[in-house]
UniProtKB/TrEMBL annotation:
This is Chromosome partition protein Smc. Gene3D superfamilies: 1.10.287.1490. Residues 1-22 form the signal peptide. The keyword Coiled coil applies. The keyword Nucleotide-binding does not apply. PROSITE patterns: PROKAR_LIPOPROTEIN. It comes from Paraprevotella clara. Keywords: Coiled coil, Signal.
Length: 1014
C-alpha cells in the first residue's frame, strides 16, 4: 500500500473551513470569527485536569512497560540509552523546526536502531521458549487427532470420544495462543530498535503534555493546543481513548481544534516515519502529495476556494519543488547489521580463512604446511532506509551497485573483498539485504571496510538517450567494520563418525545376512590446535580437505597373522569376508588416515571391536490382549506358538526348556517367559490361572502399563560360551492397546460451569445466631471433593483396581495465600495474603504413568469486593487555609450485597448499641480476616508522574481519614499562583476488582487557589 504523509482528510481539516485568500476589508471579520471560535471552545470543551493527568499517566505507564519488555536483558544498555536520548533530541528538533539537527539526528537514529536490533535480550529467550512450546503443542495436537480418529474408528464409547475431543480443543486453543504470541514477539525482535524509538517518542510526547498541564495548575483544560495534542496521541489505554472521545465530541469540523488536531496527527506521522526510516514508498508518492497540496491550496479540481490562481509565481514554485524533490529520490542511509560472526575472531565481521596442517617431514622451523583456503562464503547484511528502497538492489535492473572500500595504513586498493553472486532480499518490510562476500586478505593484515553504494543510470527507453540522472545522486558509504585474515594451524586431527565408539560386531545379522560397521556415516575431520582444543569443527566442510581418507587395520592379538584375512574395510565400511562362528571373540582396531596431498596425518584409532555371537529374533504372530491389572497376569502361548519359537532358536526342545530355566527371574517383577509348573513353584496360589505343566506363559508384572499397541521384547540370554554361536534370543510379542477398567471421571454437575472447565467458589456467610442478615464471619475453605459426582466411589475404585486418582495444583509456585491439603482435599484461602489468582487444578487417573481422563479446571472466587463511590468533590479548590477539609466526604464502599463497610473516611461501627439496636450489618469488623480481610482505604499525596507517595511542602493529609490540613509554609505563602496536589485514595481486596476503583486506587486533585491565605 502506498505510504503518504499528507492525507485528504487533513487537507479538508486545514482548508475547508475558510478561503486562504481574502481581501483587506475582511480582516476584522476574520479576526472576530477566530476569537469567537476560541471563546466558544473555552466554553464548550471542559476537560478535567485530574482526568487528563490520570489518562496520560496510565498511557505513559503502559508504554514504559512495553519499553521495559523490549529492552529487558539487553547486554549493551548504553546503546539502548543512546537511542532513547537521540529520539528525544530529534523530537525537540522537530518541534523547534531545526532542519539541520533533524537531518543529523535522523541519521544517528537509523544507525542506533541497527545497533540495538543486533543486541540479544530477554525477548530472544521468550521467542525460544515459545518456539519450543509451539513444537510440543503441535506434537500433542497431531497425537490427539490420531487418537480421536482411532477412537471413532474403533467405535469407542461417547465419554472417551468426548474426553479426547475436549483435550484436543484445549490443545488447539493453546497452540493458537502460543502462535499469536510468537508472531508478536518475532515482530518485536525483528524491529525492536524501531519499536523502541517509536515508544520512546510517544513517552516523550506524553511527558511534555503532563508537564504543560501541571504548569497550568487549573482544574480544567481549555487550551486548544494542549487538547489537540492529546486528541492526536496514539491510543494505548482505555482511559486515554475515553478522554480523546470526550474532546472529539466537542470538536466541530473546520474549527480551530479540528485543524490543530489534524496538524498534530500529521506531525506525529512525520516523526514516526523519521524514526522507522520507512519514508515515502516512491518518488511518485511525493509528487502525488505535492499535486494534491497544490490543488487544495488553489482550489482546482474541487469546489473549495483556495489560493488566488492568478498568482504568477505559484505554478513555477511547485514545478521547482518537484524538480528539487527529484534529486532526493534515492536511499537515505545504509548501515551494516552485526551478526554472530562479529563476536568471533576478536570481533571481525569478515575473515579470510587459511588452513595449515602440521607436517613433521618439513625441514623448515615452522612445520605447518598451507593446504587450503576457506571455501565458505562470509554473509553480511545491510539495512536500507527507507525500507522500500531495499528492492532496488535486487534483480537485473537494480538501481544501485554495492562494492567495498577499505584502508590499510596508507594503502587503498580493495579488490580483496568483493561480492559473490546476487544480493538477497531478506526482509522487505525492514529493508534488509544480504550479500555473500569473498575475501582474500594478506597474513597479519587488518582492514577497515565499508560498503560503497552508487546509483545506476536507468536504462533509457528504445530510441531515447540516457538522461544521466544518477549524477545528481550522492554516493553513500556505510559505517566501517573490520576484516582480517584468520589462520587455522592444525597440529592433530580426529576423524569422528556415528560408529567410532562401537565395541562389538555380531558375526552375522539376525536375518542371516552379513554384518557391517560403517565408519563413514556422518564423518567429520576435526582439526585441533597444539594444546588439543578444537579449532576447525569440519575441515572438509570449511576447507574442502582432506580429499581422501584411508584406514589401517590392526588385528594381531598374538603371533597368528592369519587374523588379517578375517577383516576388510572399503570406503569406511568394516566387513567380514568369511563370516562364521569361528570369528567369535576375534578383535580388530581401525585407524583412519587423512591424505593432504604431499603428506598424510594419522588420526587416533577407533575403539577396539570384538566379534560377537549373533542374535536370533522371532515374532509371535497372534496379537495379545492386555488389560490393566493390579496383580500379575499370565498369557498362555499355544502349542503351535511354542513350536515356532523353538524352531526359530534352532535348539532342541530340551535345550530350549533349559534356556527358559536359565532366564527364570528371581521374582515376577519383569516381563518374561515361564512354564506353568515353574510359576506355581513361586506362586502356589495361582492354580486358578495357570496349568501345572510345561505350557509356556508370558508373565506380565503387576500394574504393567503398555499404553498404545506396541511390540514387547522378551530376551533369553545364552550362557556366555565362546563355543555357542548365539548370544541371545529375542521374542517379539505384539500387544493391543491397553484396556483400563475406569476411564471416565464423573463431575458434579452442580459445581462445574457449563464450559466444563471452570468452577466459581462462593465463600459461605455465617450469620449471627438468631439472624439471617447480620454477618458473623465469611468462610475461606473449599472442599475439592465437591468437584466429583461421587468422590468416595471413585476412590474405592482406585484402591480396588490399583490406579491413582491424582489432584494436582498446576500453578502452585505462583499462588499466594492459598494452601491445598492433599490429604483431606481442602483448599484454604488466607485472606491476608491471597492475591485473587485463580487456582488451576489438573485431575486425572494415573495408571502407572499414563494419564487417563485428564481434565484441567480453574477455581475462581466469587467477586465479593463490592462497589466504591467516589468523594463528592474529585477536584477540590480552597482559599481558607485556617480550616481543615475532608476529601473523603461522600466516599462510600459497600460489599457485594450492598452492605456498607466504610463511609466518609471511617469504617462502619459493628455490633449493637447499649439499647440493643444494630449499628450496621456486621457483628465483627468487616475488614478483619474473620470477615473479608480487605484493606481499609488510605489517603496519600503522590507524584502524578510516578505514582509514588511524596511529602508535600504545603499539604498534609491524614492517611486514615482523608482530612487535609496545611503546613506552616502554606500559611506563610502569598500563593500568587494556584498550587495543586494529587491525592490518591487506595484500597485492596483479595476478592477481585473493586467496582468503581480500577487498579485499587482513585486519584483526585486538591488545589490551593490563587490568593489563598490563613
Amino acid at each position: 500500500m502506498k505510504k503518504k504523509f499528507i492525507s485528504v482528510a487533513m487537507f479538508c481539516a486545514l482548508i475547508a473551513s475558510s478561503p486562504v485568500w481574502v481581501g483587506c476589508s475582511d480582516y476584522d471579520d476574520d479576526i472576530a470569527n477566530l476569537q469567537s471560535q476560541v471563546d466558544a471552545l473555552k466554553q464548550t470543551v471542559d476537560v478535567s485536569t485530574a482526568e487528563a493527568l490520570k489518562a496520560l499517566q496510565e498511557a505513559q505507564a503502559a508504554l514504559q512497560e512495553d519499553i521495559n519488555a523490549l529492552t529487558a536483558g539487553k547486554a549493551d544498555a548504553q546503546a539502548v540509552k543512546d537511542l532513547q536520548e537521540t529520539v528525544a533530541a530529534l523530537q525537540t528538533a522537530i518541534t523547534e523546526n531545526d532542519i539541520t539537527k533533524i537531518g543529523e539526528l535522523s541519521s544517528q537514529v537509523s544507525e542506533l536502531i541497527a545497533q540495538v536490533n543486533g543486541i540479544e535480550g530477554d525477548l530472544d529467550k521468550t521467542q525460544s521458549d515459545l518456539q519450543q512450546q509451539k513444537t510440543e503443542l503441535e506434537g500433542k495436537v497431531n497425537s490427539l487427532r490420531t487418537d480421536l480418529e482411532k477412537a471413532i474408528a474403533d467405535k469407542a464409547d461417547q465419554a472417551t470420544v468426548d474426553s479426547i475431543k475436549s483435550e484436543l480443543d484445549a490443545a488447539v486453543t493453546n497452540l493458537t495462543d502460543v502462535e499469536n504470541r510468537l508472531v508478536e514477539v518475532e515482530k518485536w525482535i525483528k524491529n525492536n530498535g524501531q519499536e523502541l524509538a517509536k515508544l520512546t517518542a510517544n513517552v516523550s510526547q506524553i511527558n511534555n503534555l503532563i508537564a504543560k498541564i501541571s504548569e497550568e495548575a487549573a482544574t480544567t483544560i481549555s487550551d486548544p493546543a494542549i487538547l489537540a495534542a492529546i486528541k492526536a496521541l496514539p491510543t494505548t489505554v482505555s482511559s486515554l481513548t475515553t478522554l480523546q472521545q470526550q474532546i472529539g465530541k466537542e470538536t466541530e469540523a473546520g474549527s480551530i481544534l479540528y485543524r490543530l488536531a489534524a496538524l498534530e496527527e500529521w506531525k506525529n506521522t512525520i516523526v514516526t516515519e523519521l524514526l522507522t526510516g520507512t519514508g515515502y514508498s516512491s518518488f511518485a508518492d511525493i509528487c502525488q502529495d505535492i499535486k494534491e497540496l497544490q490543488e487544495a491550496l488553489t482550489g482546482s479540481g474541487s469546489e473549495t476556494p483556495g489560493v488566488d490562481p492568478s498568482d504568477p509565481g505559484l505554478v513555477e514554485q511547485f514545478n521547482a519543488l518537484k524538480a528539487e524533490m527529484a534529486k532526493f529520490d534515492m536511499i537515505q542511509s545504509v548501515v551494516y547489521i552485526p551478526n554472530l560472526t562479529s563476536t568471533e575472531e576478536g570481533g571481525y565481521l569478515l575473515k579470510s580463512s587459511v588452513l595449515k596442517v602440521y607436517n613433521e617431514k618439513l625441514t623448515t622451523a615452522d612445520k605447518y604446511e598451507t593446504v587450503a583456503q576457506g571455501i565458505a562464503s562470509n554473509k553480511i547484511q545491510f539495512r536500507v532506509s527507507p525500507a522500500s528502497k531495499a528492492n532496488d538492489f535486487i534483480g537485473e535492473n537494480a538501481k544501485y551497485t554495492l562494492t567495498f572500500d577499505g584502508s590499510l595504513i596508507s594503502k587503498k586498493s580493495f579488490s580483496k573483498v568483493k561480492t559473490a553472486g546476487a544480493p538477497v532480499l531478506v526482509d522487505a518490510e525492514s529493508g534488509i539485504i544480504e550479500y555473500s562476500v569473498e575475501t582474500e586478505i594478506g597474513e597479519n593484515e587488518i582492514w577497515a571496510v565499508c560498503a560503497v553504494i552508487k546509483a545506476v543510470d536507468p536504462q533509457p527507453a528504445e530510441g531515447e538517450e540516457s538522461t544521466g540522472s544518477a549524477k545528481d545522486n550522492t554516493d553513500l558509504t556505510t559505517t566501517y567494520f573490520k576484516a582480517t585474515r584468520v589462520t587455522d594451524k592444525v597440529k592433530t586431527i580426529e576423524i569422528t563418525n556415528d560408529n567410532s565408539s562401537a565395541t562389538s560386531l555380531p558375526y552375522m545379522n539376525p536375518d542371516g545376512s552379513n554384518s557391517m560397521l560403517d565408519y563413514s556415516k556422518n564423518r567429520k575431520v576435526v582439526g585441533k590446535a597444539e594444546d588439543g582444543t578444537v579449532i576447525v569443527e569440519d575441515m572438509v566442510g570449511e576447507y574442502g580437505v582432506p580429499t581422501t581418507i584411508s584406514y589401517e587395520l590392526s588385528t594381531l592379538t598374538n603371533d597368528d597373522k592369519s587374523d588379517d584375512n578375517w577383516f576388510k574395510i572399503e570406503n569406511g565400511q568394516l566387513t567380514l569376508p568369511n563370516a562364521s562362528n569361528a570369528m567369535i571373540g576375534r578383535k580388530v582396531t581401525v585407524t583412519p588416515v587423512a591424505d593432504f596431498g604431499s603428506f598424510q596425518l594419522k588420526a587416533p584409532a577407533y575403539k577396539e571391536v570384538t566379534i560377537a555371537r549373533r542374535v536370533v529374533e522371532h515374532d509371535v504372530q497372534e496379537t495379545k490382549e492386555l488389560t490393566w491389572n493390579k496383580d500379575i497376569q499370565f498369557i498362555a502361548l499355544s502349542s503351535d506358538e511354542m513350536d515356532e519359537i523353538i524352531k526359530a532358536t534352532e535348539l532342541s526342545r530340551g535345550d530350549f526348556m533349559e534356556l527358559i530355566d536359565e532366564n527364570e527371574p528371581a521374582d515376577l517383577t519383569k516381563l518374561c517367559l515361564m512354564t506353568g509348573k515353574d510359576i506355581l513353584e513361586k506362586m502356589p496360589a495361582a492354580t486358578d490361572k495357570v496349568a501345572n505343566d510345561n505350557t509356556l506363559y508370558i508373565v506380565v508384572p503387576a500394574k504393567m502399563n503398555t499404553g498404545d499397541a506396541k511390540k514387547l521384547d522378551i530376551t533369553l540370554k545364552e550362557e556366555n560360551s565362546s563355543t555357542t554361536r548365539t548370544d541371545s534370543y529375542i521374542i517379539h510379542v505384539n500387544v493391543s492397546k491397553m484396556q483400563y477398567p475406569v476411564t471416565v471421571i464423573e463431575k458434579n454437575p452442580t459445581r462445574w460451569n457449563q464450559d466444563g472447565q471452570t468452577i466459581e467458589y462462593t465463600p459461605q456467610f455465617k450469620w449471627v445466631e438468631g439472624t439471617t442478615d447480620k454477618v458473623e464471619s465469611v468462610g475461606n475453605t473449599f472442599d475439592v471433593k465437591d468437584l466429583f459426582a461421587d468422590y468416595a466411589a471413585l476412590s474405592k475404585q482406585a484402591t480396588d483396581f490399583g490406579f491413582k486418582l491424582v489432584i494436582n495444583v498446576k500453578n502452585n509456585t505462583s499462588l499466594k495465600g492459598v494452601d491445598y491439603n492433599a490429604t483431606n482435599q481442602i483448599l484454604t484461602y488466607n485472606k491476608s495474603t491471597f492475591n485473587g489468582e485463580d487456582v488451576e487444578f489438573e485431575i486425572y487417573l494415573d495408571y502407572n504413568g499414563t494419564k487417563i481422563s485428564a481434565t484441567n479446571c480453574k477455581i475462581s472466587v466469587q467477586k465479593l469486593s463490592g462497589t466504591w463511590t467516589n468523594p463528592t468533590q474529585m477536584a477540590m479548590s480552597v482559599t481558607d487555609l485556617s480550616k481543615t477539609y475532608n476529601v473523603a466526604e461522600g466516599a462510600k464502599w459497600v460489599d457485594v450485597a450492598g452492605r456498607t463497610i466504610w463511609e466518609n473516611g471511617a469504617k462502619v461501627k459493628i455490633g449493637k448499641d447499649d439499647k440493643g439496636n444494630w449499628l450496621s450489618d456486621f457483628n465483627k469488623d468487616p475488614f478483619s480476616t474473620d470477615v473479608y480481610g480487605m484493606t481499609v482505604p488510605s489517603f496519600h499525596v503522590i507524584d502524578p508522574k510516578t505514582g509514588n507517595t511524596i511529602n508535600d511542602i504545603y499539604v498534609n493529609v491524614n492517611s486514615s481519614t482523608g482530612e487535609v490540613s496545611f503546613k506552616d509554609p502554606a500559611k506563610q505563602s502569598p500563593f500568587e499562583a494556584a498550587y495543586t496536589v494529587t491525592i490518591r485514595i487506595s484500597a485492596d481486596s483479595p476478592w477481585g476488582e473493586i467496582t468503581g476503583m480500577k487498579d485499587d486506587h482513585v486519584d483526585m486533585t486538591f488545589t490551593i487557589a490563587e490568593g489563598a491565605k490563613q
